[in-house]
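User: Here's a chain of 159 residues. Predict its fold as tokens.
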Amino acid sequence: MPSQGQPFTSDATGPEGVVTKDSARPVPATLERLRADVEHRGLMVFALVDHSGEAAKAGLSMPDTKLLIFGSPAGGTPIMLAAPLAALDLPLKVLVWENPAGGSFVSYLDPAYLGGATALPTASSPGLRQSTRSPTPPSRLHGTHGRPHRPAPCPAFRL
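Assistant: Prediction complete.
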């Protein structure tokens, strides 16, 4: 992690399990593209948390920072039924925040890290059934080396 006062870059080592990508677009444009892509994939946008807007209401200042919360009840519910602690990570979240050098950053938890943290079930786990609307078929929940994971929500999205 960069030390206090140093600019953050997506090449900088961040906290374990966090992936950060660069976007040449400012926060509003990046967020709109992400939101459109999420909806195009049949996923639901549950909330948009405007951290910088709420900070301004409290009389504080921070760079443009927003959290998009999205997912699929049909896809997430079977996972949470099989592994209740997965509810700590679901629905999925993507942080879009201002890059002081221009554009924005897009950050999210690495799916392999999420799977290891909540012990996501494998396709053979009792109670885990594939939904026709599931964004991730249960057969793809099990990763390499016996570590369960979910595909990354963001790298395939158009930034």
